[in-house]
Amino acid sequence: MVLPFVKLGTLVLKTLSKPFAAKIKQQAGKHPKFRQIIVDIAQANHRFTTTLQRRIYGHATDVEIRPLNEEKAVQAAVDLIGDVFIFSVAGAALIFEVQRSARSEARKEEQRKQELEAMRQRDEELAKEVSFLRQKIEEMEQHRTRGLAGILNFSNPQPENTKTPNL
Q1: Short-list 5, 6, 31, CA closest to 100
Q2: φ, ψ at 72 (rounded to 5°)
Q3: Model confidence over 23-48: pLDDT tens digits?
């Protein structure tokens, strides 16, 4: 019953993170100090991705990479920040789901262990009961072979090798 609500909640969280990311993008480009930081981040990202692309395509990597103009850098940085925010929310939701699933599996495993222990105890009790019943059957077999006379000690009250005293 809880599982559909949890999954629905994570989906809603991911969906709601997109407008927040858009708001972060909008505000990031306006704040002067933050703007300079994100321009630096965008330029570093541009250098890294350009170098990586040049290596992938087999081009020379020792050439100078022209920096982005400020507006393109700001736009690239706020896009990067928005994407990082959305992926962070999605990653957090994924981690939450994995942990919840692991806890659920742990509870199921504990329940299986308890059931197995109960079955083992019941098996031991049944083994003791079978042993007790075998013992009773053996006793009854001994009494049956002796018959009624054996039970009442009427036949051969004394061993044959001993003499009875004359009275």
Answers
A1: 6
A2: -65, -35
A3: 777 777 677 788 888 888 888 988 99
